[in-house]
Amino acid sequence: MTSRPLPSFVLPVARAVGSRRRRHERERRARWAHAATLGLTGAAGAFALSAGALTVGARVMARLPLVPVGRQRSDATVRAVYRDRVHLDATAETRRPGYLAIRQAGGAVHVRLGAVLGSPTPTSVARVLLAQDTPRPQDRLELGPAGTNGYYWAGDPATAHGLDFEDVVVDSPVGAMPAWQVTPRGEGDGSGTWAVLVHGHGATRGETLRVMPLLSELGLTALAITYRNDAGAAESADRMHHLGADEWEDAEAAIVHALAHGARRVVLVGWSMGGGIALRTSVLSAHRDAIAAVVLDSPAVDWQDILDYHAKALRAPRPMRRLALWMMRSRWGARAVRLREPIALAQMRPAFYGEHLRHRTLLLHAMEDRTVPPGPSAELAGLRPDLVQYVPFPEASHTREWNTDSERYERVLTRFLTDVLGLAVDPDAMALPVRDPASPPQERSSGLRL
């Protein structure tokens, strides 16, 4: 059977249908290609945007601990003032047991407070009023904002404690560093031993005032130093903190100063970042044989742990945290945060200090520390139980061990120094703290933080 030819009108119709199908197919492919292009462009833009945000966030995070801190802000509110007590808004700091001072008007008003008496209202706390260091009638505590002073004492060694001292200058590699050189008045046999005192990040030499009466009683000369980028001290090339990686050179210069002015041996004492500086000095110093002991108060033993702890508290994503650390410790990353050179974070960890430590060390750490977590301190003590005496202080916040239990603090410190230095002192027979926190103010007492 032979096939019949298609009618003449069918072929044009078939061609037209096929043409439309091919056109629709081309349009469909074009739409998909366009959509894919838009999708890829959007994804690339989103990636670039997220990468940019990640970089900016990491840079801010890396710079936060490196920029020198300015003036203290108000962190307390006075609600009522009586002859024997003060009522404050209840906060973690104002509710904490022990001793605390508050100041107003930049230090024109400075009041020392004692134990917590109770809660007059659900949102306030009452504390004993022990003494006022600004006794003029017009310098009385007023209702309203105030700043807490965890150093407790204010002014300088003379206005705070009546101790004789000199304003001296320590010549460090970057320039002149002002220091207080305090002459001991006690009958202890610490003659020839100097204590180099190193304050913490954002703090001042006033942080060291709490231990000065005890050191003086034991016969030790105290040298409370400043370091680069402190107010009144020489600046580093980048005007940034290096978390102790470079500041230890200023503590080393203080050792040189002490040895040049009669010291035969030195005890390094540091708080917070100053503790990290003291620890780093003890393992890198060219005068290690002159270092008799190290005393650390809530020290920065592991900066990577500290930085990661605070980044997690800010809920920073892990990639941002890792990038921030890279910026601080790498040559290329350092440029992004305007550091002149990277920070040797790998050397500021318990493993490094455990390997290189060779001095007897008293390590005191606050268990309620939300600034420098105590874990690395306990780790270092575990690595070197032969050298490190670890003393935890329950209920104390960062560097507030003395404030929480001043008698215990000074007893522990006295026993340690008596043992290490061979002092002819009976720690158990001493009335401690040496300076009663409720002592009347000195004749020229001040509320200033110097």
From TrEMBL:
Transmembrane residue ranges: 32-54
* Cross-referenced InterPro entries: AB_hydrolase_1 (IPR000073), AB_hydrolase_fold (IPR029058)
Q: Could you name the domain of life of the organism this protein comes from?
A: Bacteria
The family database entries (SUPFAM superfamilies) matched by this protein are listed as: alpha/beta-Hydrolases
What Gene3D superfamilies does its record include?
alpha/beta hydrolase (3.40.50.1820)
Q: Does the keyword Transmembrane apply?
A: yes
Q: Where is the AB hydrolase-1 domain?
A: 196-403
Listed A to Z, the keywords are: Hydrolase, Membrane, Transmembrane, Transmembrane helix
List, alphabetically, the Pfam families matched. Abhydrolase_6
**Record's protein name:** Alpha/beta fold hydrolase
Species name: Brachybacterium huguangmaarense
